[in-house]
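quick one before i forget lol
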Amino acid sequence: MKQTKLNLLLLAVLLTATAVWALTPERYLHVRVTNPSTHELVRVNLPLSLAEKVVPAINEGQLRDGKVQIGDFKADNVNIKMILDAVKTAPDGEFVTVEEKDNNVRVAKEHGQLVVHVIDKQGKENVDVTIPWEVAQALTANTDKDQINVEAAIKALESVGDMTLVTVTGHDENVRIWIDSNSSDK
C-alpha cells in the first residue's frame, strides 16, 4: 500500500514538473534593422533553442565549434575571466570614460550588468550594449585567449529576462537586438 502511494506521489511530481516545463515559454533572439531613408526593414526572430543547435554546426570563417576567433586580438598577459569575476563583485559604477573629439566611450556596471555606451560624433551614431553577467561569463567559458563562446552565451541568454542587449541609433540605420518570449518582434 505504501509503495502504491509513493508511486502515485512520484507520478504526480513528474506530471507537475512536465507541465511546468511545457509552460515555460521559448526565448527568442530578435534583431531589427531599419533604414529610414530607404524604408528598408530587416527582422530576425530566432528561437534560442534553434540557435543553440545551429551555431555549433557552422564551421565557417571565424566561427568554429560554437566559438568565434577574434581577429588579431591578443590577450596573452590579461586574464579576461579574472577581470570579469572582479568586475562582477565590484559595486555599480562608471569604470572607464574616454572623451575625444570624434567619440566618447563609457564602460560601467549598472544594475548588476556590464554596460558600454559609445557616441561616434563623426558618424553620428550611438551604440548601447548591455550584457548580463551570466552572458559575459559564458562568452569566455571554455575558450582560448582570443575566442568568445557564442554557443555558451546563447545558453546563458535563456535564463535572462526580457531585455534589450544592443541598440545602434545612426543617421542611416537603426539596429535593435533583444531577448523576450514573443515569436515576433511586435
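fyi The chain has one domain: 27-180.
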